[in-house]
Structures are given as structure tokens and as C-alpha cells.
Amino acid sequence: MGARVHDIEAVELRTHPLVLELTGKRSQRTGLEGKFSVYHSAACALMRGDGAPTAYTDEVVNLPELVALRDRVTAVADPACHEASVDIAVTFADGNRVTKHVERAIGSRERPLSDAEIEHKFCVQSGLVIGDAAAARLLDLAWRLETLADSGEVARMAMAG
């Protein structure tokens, strides 16, 4: 059986100093504070597999198992590291260590999202607010923006949900 999240002993990040300046909030009580924490984001990525908006709610920020994992995350600033790059090292209780270098973050200028990834992200995030069906209709309309006689139609549909 493979290692599980609760088997993680330590998570070490090496990143650009700007990342820690902007998102170095060590402890969080609210979802908004979680958005400004590289520690919370790393723990969510390991525990949940993503950094969707649902990872930044007050409830998720305060989940005991997430807090415990977040407390095992450390970050070191390295000016030689690109702003959109990170080195990650995860050490497990059995001594095994897994490392990963992310050259550029997904969605950065150097690693833009594909149309399919944009569609997925849009539907997941907007579906939380306006519902899946309305999100799908709005996405379809947005992709046809250049053919619309009135681009305000997109805004009106977004407001109508």
C-alpha cells in the first residue's frame, strides 16, 4: 500500500522570496487568511489534490487534519528560484522522501492553461456560485463572444444565473 497523507512527516518548500512575502501567513482562522498562506495551499494540494475555491473556506482552513498537515510544512526563500517555480520535498514517517521541481506554476505565462483546462476551472468555480447549468450556458456564450451583436449579453446572463 502506498503512502498516505497522514503518513507525511514533513513538507519542505523552496520558493522565491516574493512568495513568502505575499503568502507567508503561517496560521489561519478564516478562508480569506488561507488564500494568503503558501503553507495552507501546500497542505490542501497534498490532502485534496487541488487549490479550488472550496479549499479556502473557513471550514476547510480549520479542519484538524489539514491544520496538522499545514503545521508540518516549512518554506525557505531562495532568490535564485523563479517567482512561479517551487521545489517540494515530502518526507514520510517511514523515511521515504519524494521530491518534485515545478518549473512554472500551472496558469503562469510560461505554462498557460489549455482551453479545456480553462473550461474546467471556469465551470468548477462559477458552478459554485451560479450552478452548473448556468455556468455551462455562460461558458458557451463567452466562447462565442466575438460573434455576439451585444457583448453585454454575457454580463446579463452572468447576473441572471
Structural commentary:
- With 161 residues, this protein is of the alpha+beta class.
- It folds into 2 domains: 98 residues, 2-methylcitrate dehydratase PrpD (60s Ribosomal Protein L30, Chain: A); 46 residues, no CATH class.
- Helix content is 43%, strand content 16%.
- It is built from 8 helices and 4 strands; from the N terminus they run βαααααβββααα.
- The protein has a 4-stranded mixed β-sheet with strand order 2-1-3-4, covered by helices on one side.
- α6 crosses α7 and α7 packs antiparallel against α8.
- The chain is elongated.
Would you kindly provide a brief summary of this structure?
Helices cover 43% and strands 16% of the residues.
Secondary structure elements and pairings:
Layout: E1 8-15, H1 17-23, H2 31-34, H3 38-48, H4 58-61, H5 64-70, E2 73-77, E3 86-92, E4 97-102, H6 115-130, H7 132-143, H8 152-160
Parallel strand pairs: 1-2
Antiparallel strand pairs: 1-3, 3-4
Helix pairs in contact: 3-5, 6-7, 7-8
By CATH, the topology of the largest domain is 60s Ribosomal Protein L30, Chain: A
Unreliable stretches: none
Shape: elongated
- Largest sheet composition: 4 strands, mixed
SS-based class:
alpha+beta
CATH evolutionary superfamily of the largest domain: 2-methylcitrate dehydratase PrpD
Mean pLDDT: 91
Measured by DSSP, the beta-strand proportion falls in 15-25%
Helix-strand sequence: EHHHHHEEEHHH
CATH class of the largest domain: Alpha Beta
